[in-house]
Each structure stands twice: as structure tokens, then as C-alpha cells.
Write a structure and sequence with these properties.
With 357 residues, this protein is of the alpha+beta class. The chain contains 9 helices and 18 strands. It folds into 2 domains: 3-180 and 350-355, Rossmann fold (3-Layer(aba) Sandwich), CATH 3.40.50; 188-288, no CATH class. It has an 8-stranded antiparallel sheet. The longest helix is centred in the N-terminal third of the chain and has 16 residues, at 35-50. Bound molecules: adenosine-5'-diphosphate and magnesium ion. Residues 35-36, 296 line the site of magnesium ion.
């Protein structure tokens, strides 16, 4: 199910924003304009489906930190809302603060409202509606049913469906959101697992921080587009080649580079090279996700890598809907050229993220 529209309100610098998503959408703008905030808002829908909404928000400093810090209309509650339209389905999640007395979990989100709609022509039907702790949903026969479980206030109802077969629409929505994939930061510090040999298992999807890079590349080499992988390496690093090593089931990577007598181990490669290899592994996944989001993939890449990265993302976009944020105009241009990307520019005005028309 492609994501056709996204709306965000009250989340960090995004006071209110709504825009369509295309097969490839690129969000560009200067540092601090709110690109990562938009990316994170989308990711919250995935976290909600997973049951990790509270944890995701905690990693960002907790609920009070993510709420729009600008002025609100009188009487308007402190909330953020994220919504998406997926073909004929639409889903919206609104969270606010835990009501007093907060107890020890005052930084948790409190899910205030969740709604799922089904669009039929010009009409839209509410298929599920949550108001704090109470939910009704239409079951497989279309009957209005109240959920019999005691809901956790800090998690999405999608992660708390106990009888999935009774609520096929909610289950399908949850399954779809769970398949979305997000890449924001690949860990390349000296202790990062990706710099060391590791027990490898078949890995069709690279972990979000790239920790299982060798296993993901080995999987592509084995059951995926191995030619595409080695061509992409040669394209990005002319004269170099990637070697994948398997020692008693422990996988590691090495790069042969022009002018060097021996291949370099992962522990010796530059951050930029390792990050590029992570992007390769993510984009050539043999089990592509329906929706793939990359936040500022240009981070610590040499400018000469932006054009090949653009081509690689274009290839991935034949199998996945792609959403990219970047401050590199060269990358946005490459994506426009190679993938017909829709480019949206953001700026910050009066503290609020806005679309540049
Ligand atoms: N709760 C908040 N309310 C309003 N603005 C916020 C809030 N939290 C962060 N910001 C603003 O968001 C900006 C960072 O946005 P970010 O998405 O990281 O930018 P970038 O475009 O560089 O990725 C900061 O400039 C900060 O002022
Ligand atoms: Mg950012």
C-alpha cells in the first residue's frame, strides 16, 4: 500500500504540515529546518505498530520534549498528531501528556486518539476509533465491537490487538506499518559491531544501525542481486572491490583498493566507506520493504558519492516507495533526474517548519 499523504501537527518544529508522497519523495532544506523531525514523525507510526512508541519517544527525550514548543491557541491541548493516507485506508495517531497525577512515568506519551478510516469514493467510514482507553472497531463482519482488553495508555491500539482474525483491517494496517524500514544513523565508531567479525545468519534486511552489515551483504551476494552489489561498489569506489569473508560462520568484510598490497579490514575502513556499504546493503535488500525512509543519507559521504547514491536509490525505488531527507541539493537533483523524484523544500519560519511553495 503506497503512502499517498502525510500530515503532522504539533510535533517538534512541525506546527502543521500536510503533503502528498510520491513513489520517490525528497525533502530538502538547510540544517535545522525540520527534515529529521518529519522523518521521525513518520517513524512513530512504525514504532506504534511495533509497540515501541513509548521507547521511541523516550529516546528522543520523552513526550514533553517532542511537543511543539511554540504558542498554542487558548484552550488547545498539548498534543501531536501524525496521520497517513495509504490507498483507501487512512490512519491517525494523537498523543499528549499523561494526566496528573503522573506518577513515575510522566515522560510517557498518552495516546489520546487513534482513528482508522476506509475511503469509498467520496465517503469515508470510521473503521476504528480510540478515545484514550476505550476503543471500538468494526470486526470482520462489519459489526461495531468494543475492545475487551484493558489498553495501555502509552501504546498504539495497533500493537494491542489480541484477536487479529476478528479485526482483519486493523491487522493488515499494522502488518503494513511494520514492514516500513527506516535508516537514520549507521554506527561506525571503533566499537561498532559492523567493524568486527560476527556470527552471521541470513539477513534480508539490514538492522537500522548497520550492525549486521557483513551478514546483510553476504545475503545479497548469496540470494540477491550479487552483480548489482559488486557493480555498485565499483561504481562508487572505482578500481575497488568488496570481499566477504566467512570463517566458521563468522562473517566480515574487506575492501581491496587500488594501490594497496592487501585488502583493508572493516576496522580500517573510513566512516564514509562503511556508511556507503550500509546504504548499499539497505537499498539492495533481497526482501525490499513497501516503504523505505532514509534520513540524511549524505552524512559523512564524499560529494562524489552523491550521484552514484542517487542512482542506487532510483534502482531501489522500482521495488519500494522511497522517502529521503537531505540537505545535499546534488542528491535531490540526482534523484529528480534518475528517479523522477518529487522534491519538497522546507524552511523554518517563526520556529515552525513550513513548505516552500
Ligand atoms: N519541541 C520543539 N518545538 C519546536 N521546535 C523544536 C522542538 N524540538 C526541536 N525543535 C527544533 O527543530 C529543529 C531541528 O529540526 P531537525 O528536524 O533536526 O532539523 P534538520 O532539518 O536539520 O534535520 C531545531 O532547530 C529545533 O529548534
Ligand atoms: Mg537532521
Amino acid at each position: 500500500m503506497p503512502v499517498q499523504e502525510l500530515w503532522i501537527e504539533g510535533y517538534r518544529s512541525v506546527q502543521s504540515l500536510r503533503f502528498p508522497l510520491e513513489p520517490v519523495t525528497v525533502v530538502v532544506g538547510p540544517n535545522g529546518c525540520g527534515k529529521t523531525n518529519v522523518y521521525r514523525a513518520l517513524q512513530l507510526l512504525h514504532s506504534g505498530a511495533e509497540g515501541s512508541l513509548a521507547h521511541s519517544l523516550a529516546e528522543e527525550g520523552g513526550m514533553p520534549s517532542v511537543l511543539w514548543a511554540g504558542s498554542r491557541k487558548k484552550g488547545e491541548p498539548a498534543r501531536f498528531t501524525v496521520g497517513v493516507r495509504l490507498e483507501d485506508l487512512a490512519y491517525e495517531l494523537s498523543c499528549g501528556l499523561v494526566p496528573p497525577p503522573e506518577g513515575p512515568f510522566g515522560l510517557d506519551p498518552d495516546v489520546k486518539e487513534e482513528t482508522v478510516w476506509l475511503h469509498e469514493g467520496k465517503r469515508r467510514h470510521v473503521m476504528a476509533e480510540r478515545r484514550s482507553r476505550s476503543v471500538f472497531a468494526r470486526d470482520a463482519e462489519g459489526h461495531r465491537t468494543t475492545f475487551a482488553v484493558e489498553l495501555w495508555g502509552n501504546e498504539s491500539v495497533l500493537a494491542q490487538i489480541v484477536e487479529p482474525h476478528r479485526f482483519p483491517l486493523l491487522s493488515a494496517l499494522r502488518a503494513e506499518l511494520l514492514r516500513w524500514r527506516f535508516y537514520h544513523h549507521f554506527r561506525t565508531d571503533p566499537e561498532s559491531p559492523l567493524r568486527h567479525a560476527q556470527v552471521g545468519v541470513r539477513t534480508p534486511a539490514l538492522a537500522h544501525d548497520g550492525r549486521d552489515l557483513a551478514a546483510a551483504l553476504m545475503t545479497i551476494d548469496n540470494i540477491g542481486d550479487d552483480r548489482g552489489l559488486h557493480e555498485a561498489v565499483e561504481n562508487a569506489f572505482p578500481g575497488s572491490s568488496l570481499e566477504l569473508d566467512n570463517e566458521d560462520g563468522r562473517f566480515s568484510i574487506r575492501m581491496r583498493m587500488p594501490g594497496l598490497q592487501r585488502a583493508l579490514e572493516a576496522s580500517e575502513l573510513s566512516d564514509g566507506t562503511l556508511r556507503y556499504l550500509c546504504l548499499l546493503a539497505a537499498l539492495l535488500s533481497p526482501r525490499p520493504p513497501p516503504f523505505l525512509a532514509l534520513n540524511e543519507p549524505e552524512t559523512s559521504l564524499h560529494p562524489s558519492l552523491l550521484e552514484p547514491l542517487g542512482r542506487l536509490i532510483a534502482t531501489a525505488s522500482r521495488r519500494s516507495q522511497v522517502f529521503v531527507t537531505t540537505h545535499a541539493h546534488e542528491l535531490a537533483t540526482a534523484l529528480e533526474k534518475h528517479a523522477g523524484a518529487s522534491v519538497l523544500s522546507l524552511r523554518k519560519d517563526g520556529g515552525a517548519t513550513e513548505l516552500v511553495e
